[in-house]
User: Fold BnaA06g24710D protein from Brassica napus.
Amino acid sequence: MGSELRLVLIISFVSVLVFSTSSSPLPRFPRQNRARIQLFGEDRNDYQYETKYFSQQLDHFSFADLPKFSQRYLINSAHWTGASELGPIFLYCGNEGDIEWFATNSGFIWEIAPKFGALLVFPEHRYYGESMPYGSKEEAYKNATTLSYLTTEQALADFAVFVTDLKRNLSAEASPVVLFGGSYGGMLAAWMRLKYPHIAIGALASSAPILQFEDIVPPQTFYDIVSNDFKRESSSCFNTIKNSWDAIIAEGQKANGLQQLSKTFHFCRALNSTDDLSDWLDSAYSYLAMVDYPYPADFMMPLPGHPIKEVCRKIDGASSDASILERIYAGVSVYYNYTGKVGCFELDDDPHGLDGWNWQACTEMVMPMSSSQKNSMFTAYDFNYSSYKEDCWNTFRVNPRPRWVTTELGGHDIETTLKSFGSNIIFSNGLLDPWSGGSVLKNLSSTIVALVTKEGGHHLDLRPSTPEDPKWLVEQREAEIGLIQGWIRTYRLEKEAQFPLLKRSW
Amino acid sequence: MGSELRLVLIISFVSVLVFSTSSSPLPRFPRQNRARIQLFGEDRNDYQYETKYFSQQLDHFSFADLPKFSQRYLINSAHWTGASELGPIFLYCGNEGDIEWFATNSGFIWEIAPKFGALLVFPEHRYYGESMPYGSKEEAYKNATTLSYLTTEQALADFAVFVTDLKRNLSAEASPVVLFGGSYGGMLAAWMRLKYPHIAIGALASSAPILQFEDIVPPQTFYDIVSNDFKRESSSCFNTIKNSWDAIIAEGQKANGLQQLSKTFHFCRALNSTDDLSDWLDSAYSYLAMVDYPYPADFMMPLPGHPIKEVCRKIDGASSDASILERIYAGVSVYYNYTGKVGCFELDDDPHGLDGWNWQACTEMVMPMSSSQKNSMFTAYDFNYSSYKEDCWNTFRVNPRPRWVTTELGGHDIETTLKSFGSNIIFSNGLLDPWSGGSVLKNLSSTIVALVTKEGGHHLDLRPSTPEDPKWLVEQREAEIGLIQGWIRTYRLEKEAQFPLLKRSW
Assistant:
């Protein structure tokens, strides 16, 4: 049975989801929850905040009679210089997950708050974490009707309403707001500058692939970068992975092949299909490319520094009689079991779970993903919108609007657009990050600047500084601080010119 | 019965609506329909266009399962130089009424189209004219649920989707779009620059009171300007009007007073209350101030040039034994019966009609309106949000969001905002127009400019040129043409720099 492996991959930033036309149409999610728990255990003590809730309109753009919902936000005012000093407000644009997870993984913002005398706020994105419409995740995720208000535009409006109200309550209407965000949160930060230029004075959009839509960048971009990340470490490693997909299928077609594969890869339960294994590996490689940080970190998983190098060392360095699949197992164990504590691996154990990013990917966040025969180490695949749409319909009973994001939020001809529209955005990207291919990698104007680091991974700059930080990372963060200082200085000078009596010690 | 006259006035740009707490809580509409028919009879032949329809999402910002609707648009491509020449697209942002009415009252755009080689499109605003969700006005206006998608944000998104699709169909993605709009349409044009900077390269926002919200301008602004317009013609005229309100109430309190008033003012049917008469007069004065054009025109009603001067001539020039109410009647007849063909006057004959602007005023477009004892010729009134809200609830079962517009579309600190955000907006205003008080009257940057004319009325610059045009009006339009030419030139130079092969004869 030569079942053809044609995967439609909907890739999230914190969880790789797989729509497989040949097996389950439902998305599955790797280790996110486990990773989160580990992180909280480690980081919580470093970041002190109050948790509060803000009553939000469920639909900002209609007057349908809908119940309001509670948006959670974290706030820290320990360093704020206050409204009378025009103390800035740093707002992290919460993305597709628990806001505590993002807040505690954004050490950079916490570190620079004292220098700026900034108030920190981390509003959570609707439909994630505790910010559930209709009172609970179960109700919010019930069906396409209850999910229908999970959109980027509503989330941006949430931020605008939230911060406007916060400023009013603090009598801090004149305080400048600076936006931060990583990954989808970075896209939100950049889009806030586009859609709400009156709400914030600037945005640090880290690893924000705002161009990963429609036909703006080639659909192969993501997987080509993942593949290149492996190739640069070792071309034999790259080739081993490239050849492994056929080996997996061949093995799976044997009598007891799935059982044997389950054993080779130490799964707790027998595999149902080779697709499950391929997806599991695909996830690992994609995340490894994202978090190929230069020092040990544990954003997704506890990992060593330069984890791809480690993976390839295992793949290439296996004993000469190791099979190709044994090599692959040795490599991927670096990702899934670096601590060595995992006895056996679980595939996603909630095949019927509905995750928010899947909904978003099936409505607005349609990011075409292919993998090329030529450059990629993955199975060749051409993005097929029809089957993508069909999968979305089968999963959610919703039709995507693949052209809506570019209409609403731009993207085509971003250079002319951003140049003539706006100001004060930093697009920071590390070129190891496969999402960098869909981001802005060159300066668009004197105030819309790209900070690109060759060795950087997925929003590395937002992480806390460490003694192991390479020089280029230290310099990147210094550049970011300098630019933000410049925005605030300019803003204050303009205020001062408008209201001469306001002159202070800024 | 000393019934106190406390009116909450919701003022539209094409129809003055009156919420009277003491009488009918339902809005009433003066002559709009009749005026429209007269205009069409006169103007239709001058403007040739095709009428087409575009299928729109009812809700752009959610994925609720809603029926699409047909948005009407008018299109003229007679002068378009085409996609290959980067021929510009002039888009009029349809406002609160039949798009044919606005298109045929925007002669300026038609006149300059040949000079620019421009494609003209006039998309209609949802819920007006023929662009009715749910198939008919009756269904669309049925209740708060069906009306709930009548919002400014949805209308802006309609324009963005419409023009993006149009450009794609014409393979004219690179053609620059210039926005035009008068009054609420001008607000939409300016807001398009704020919310969709990637969709259009600039906007002529004529008589666009984007600051008439919340506490940005004093609530007395509108009626103070109306009053000043009368006072500058004649202070005795101003005083006669100022004294007439008490005279009306006094007359109404007499036995047979309402009957006598109906006779004095030539109503076809007896008045039910003096409020009805006061509202009718209030409407006339407000519109007279808006359309106090320097030559005969018939935007709202057929009127002579300088109609306020005419009104005051009648009021002041009545025979010396004329009563104050007879004077008022003589004056207001200039507005309601300049042609002399009206035998008797009808008050609004559809007290239960629900008009779209009333809904908008009761949801987002909350423009506080007061009239001051000191400067105004109207009855003193302090805007009272509680009773406004109550009227909205009684009428539509909807609660206004009075702070939403400033959150979503800015307004507070417009100077800093627009200066640091954007480019290419012309705010044109005539100071006779009572809406000018809520608009932008000074240059905010080198590309966000105010063209202010002392003698101008409500979006006079958008009207067709006439032989009687005063010099300042001719100059104003020349300045507008020059600025638009500059935007297009800059855009083309940038395109040329990006794609050197595109060099053409621009």
